[in-house]
Structures are given as structure tokens and as C-alpha cells.
Amino acid sequence: MKTTLNIADDLLIEAKRFAVKRKTTLKAVVENGLRRELQADQNRSGNIEHSDFIEMGPFGLPRLKRRGQQKISSAEVYELIDKEGI
């Protein structure tokens, strides 16, 4: 679907440079950014925020909450993931 967006000149220039650097299109950069933002919003509104074990990281991805120097095994990580329904 076609649409028109008004984007600040400096942001558009930066996005075009980013697209060239990644050898992709401006359209792909905008779509990927929008998808990431929407996914992060869905994650924030889900169960993850209220979990005792899982928190949202700075890039909108779930991660285990830090609990000091306690070490846990991979099996325990998978068990927590299953328990939290991620």
C-alpha cells in the first residue's frame, strides 16, 4: 500500500545513509523499524512486564532479570521461559 509520510530532513538523510550502508532500501528500513516498534509495544503490554523473572531489555527484547551473582543452568533458563510463556 502506498502512503505519504512527512519525515524530518535530517532523519530522512540518516535513514537513506543507513539503507545504503546495509545494502537495502529506504522502504525496508522504515518497514523494519515500524515492525520492531510495534513488536516492542506488544511485548510491553503483555505478561513480560509483570514477570518476576523476565524484563524487557533496551531493544525491546525479553531477558532474564539480574539476581546478583546467582548462577543458573541452561535447563533452568528454558524452564523459566516455558513457565513465562515466551
Structure description:
A hairpin with a 5-residue loop joins β1 and β2. This protein is mostly helical. It is elongated. α1 (9-21) crosses α2. The mean pLDDT is 80. It starts with 8 loop residues before the first helix and ends with a helix. The protein is built from three helices and two strands, in the order ααββα. The protein has a two-stranded antiparallel ribbon with strand order 1-2. The relative contact order is 0.09. It has two domains: 1-45; 46-86, no CATH class. The protein has helices at 9-21, 26-45, 74-84; strands at 54-56, 62-64.
Main β-sheet: number of strands, strand sense, barrel status? Answer: 2 strands, antiparallel
Number of helices: 3
Contiguous uncertain segments of 5+ residues: none
Rounded to the nearest angstrom, the distance between the terminal CA atoms is: 32 Å
Number of strands: 2
- Specify the structural class: mainly alpha
Give the oligomeric state. single chain
- Strand order of the main beta sheet, please? 1-2
Mean pLDDT figure: 80
Tell me the β content.
5-15%
Summed up, the domain count is: 2
Secondary-structure element order, N to C = HHEEH
Q: Any idea what the shape is? A: elongated
Kindly state the percentage of residues in helix. Answer: 40-55%
